[in-house]
Amino acid sequence: MRFNEDAELDVSQVEDLRGSGGGVGGRVAIGGGGLGIVGLVLYFLFSQFGGVDLPAAPSFGLDQVERGGRVDNARLAEECRTGADANAKQDCALVAVINSIQGYWKQQFAGSGRTYQAVPTNFFRGGVNTRCGSATSDVGPFYCPADSEVYIDLGFFTELRQKFGAQGGTFTQAYVLAHEYGHHVQNLLGTSRQVRGNATGPTSGSVRLELQADCYAGAWANHATTTPTSSGKPLITQVTQQDINGALDAAGRIGDDFIQSQLGGRRVDPSQFSHGSSQQRQKWFTTGLRTGDPGSCDTFRTNDLG
Ligand SMILES: [Zn+2]
After folding, report:
1. How many Å lie between the centroid of ligand 1 and the Cα of residue 186?
2. For residue 20, how far is its CA from the centre of ligand 1 (angstroms)?
3. pLDDT by residue (tens digit) across 242-286?
4. How close is the Cα of 274 to the center of ligand 1, in Å?
């Protein structure tokens, strides 16, 4: 995956919470987690909205505020100015990817007479307070519908390689972010609100939401090299077959069956599925990628989820 050396980056689409220093008010990073009743309630809320993207043991706790970090984009603004920076530095590549994803949806919404609302991705470390409650990095990247923002501890990408055994690479990270923005699109379109409760199961609303977010990620990927961002040029100049294979590999490693059996050492139990099987996740990403049409992502009207 390569970026246009001359295209400008918009760091305002990221909120960098990774700095040190105490924070009061607003979103602050929090310390290590503990799971209390509050945590369970928050987990329920997250699950209900399809927010948590890894069924890892959640560790939330409002009493865990230890470290803080205000939004401080100074370093990103200094380092991430153009596509050349994105080609050289990982943080900047993610800024570029977020710009591209949101550029795509802006165009897509405008095409159907709607207005897309751009929202930031918060880079945090350790833990974070959101309007959905507090979360530690253990929950993986997530979208919080209450404040319409994406949250990610970039350490997740290391975990994806080391714990999940994924190949990694920038485009794999792009897939993860595009999936989270897929949840934002569902929030804007009202799709997420149609799913009530947090029931699991192979054809549950939760699984349908997650597979649709994968499909939306694929739709963006189809348009990645043709979507102009604010600078008027496509930010991404190249996505290779190897990049696509890396994303599919990752999709296969965050499927419920893979996590249950390969990571959890348990028997595969479809009644506990919340995100879909590995094969289903790959199938729906591929559907979006092949068609380039979010309209092909109607996981709610099909009996064949894969
Ligand atoms: Zn998701």
Report:
1. 11
2. 29
3. 999 999 999 999 899 998 888 888 899 999 998 999 999 999 999
4. 9
Give the pTM: 0.87
Q: Which of 15, 3, 188, 221 is nearest to 101 (CA)?
A: 221
DSSP string, 179-232: HHHHHHHHHHHTTGGG--S---STT-HHHHHHHHHHHHHHHHHHHTTT-B-TTS
Tell me the CA–centroid distance for residue 214 and ligand 1, in Å: 8
Report the helix count and the strand count for the chain, using DSSP H and E: 10, 8
Q: In angstroms, what is the span from residue 53 Cα to ligand 1's centroid?
A: 5
Q: How far is CA 33 from CA 42, 62, 63, 83, 105, in A?
A: 13, 9, 9, 37, 35
Q: Measured between alpha carbons, how far is residue 177 from residues 96, 98, 276, 287 in Å? A: 11, 7, 18, 18
β-strand 121-124 against 14-16: which pairing, if any? parallel
Q: Ligand 1 mean position to 273 CA, how many Å?
A: 13
Beta-carbon contacts of residue 301 (< 8 Å; ≥ 6 apart): none
Ligand 1 centroid – CA 247 distance (Å): 15
- CA atoms 124, 179, 245, 278: torsion sign: positive
Phi and psi angles of residue 226, each rounded to the nearest 5 degrees, phi first? -120, -5
- Return the pLDDT at 29: 52
Which of 151, 128, 2 minimizes the C-alpha distance to 59?
128
Distance from residue 192's CA to the centre of ligand 1 (Å): 11
Task: Give, as residue ranges, everything with CB less than 5 Å from ion ligand 1.
Answer: 53, 210, 213
CA-CA-CA-CA torsion for 102, 104, 107, 111, nearest 10 degrees?
A: -120
Tally of CB atoms within 10 A around 235:
27
